[in-house]
């Protein structure tokens, strides 16, 4: 299984960082110009972007990528999977949160990916790693 991992420190308490990264709209800032919209709410009205929610990503009216939140462990971990994508066999995203100090949080973002076509997985993962690294650096600077 091919995978990538991105680590980023945030100068903010773990609950603030978790709250930021658990909202689909945050990824509009992190991954601009890619647009992210929630198309299905979670069952929990307090966390509409939580467990079971679905987001679509893309540009303008074309948002072919769909992800569903499969696990939410508050202030510890978020997991999601890609759904309804015929080109990808397996895609699992895991975002883990670790408190380093009262106002310092480390985020470890891991993505496992297996495309149906050979050699495509590494190309996609390389692009994702670059986008996530840049996006998380931008977010970390924004919450000082």
Characterise the protein shown here.
InterPro entries: Polyketide_cyclase/dehydratase (IPR019587), START-like_dom_sf (IPR023393). This protein starts with a strand and ends with a helix. It has a 7-stranded antiparallel sheet. The longest helix has 23 residues, at 120-142. The protein has a single domain (2-142), classed as START domain (Alpha-D-Glucose-1,6-Bisphosphate, Chain A, domain 4), CATH 3.30.530.20. Helices cover 25% and strands 46% of the residues. It is of the alpha+beta class.
What is the gist of this entry?
With 144 residues, the protein is α+β, with helices and mostly antiparallel strands. It is built from three helices and seven strands; from the N terminus they run βααββββββα.
Reported by name, the CATH topology is Alpha-D-Glucose-1,6-Bisphosphate, Chain A, domain 4
Tell me the structural class: alpha+beta
The CATH C-level name is: Alpha Beta
Q: What is the topology, as strand order, of the major beta sheet? A: 1-7-6-5-4-3-2
- The arrangement of helices and strands along the chain is EHHEEEEEEH
Main β sheet profile? 7 strands, antiparallel
- Strand elements, count: 7
Per CATH, the architecture is: 2-Layer Sandwich
Total of DSSP H or I helical runs spanning 4+ residues: 3
Q: Roughly what is the average pLDDT, rounded to an integer?
A: 94
Which percent range fits the helix content?
A: 25-40%
Instruction: Specify the CATH homologous superfamily.
Output: START domain
Number of domains: 1
Identify low-pLDDT runs: none
| Shape descriptor | globular
Multimeric state of these chains? single chain
Radius of gyration: 15 Å
- Terminal residue distance: 36 Å
Strand content bin: over 45%
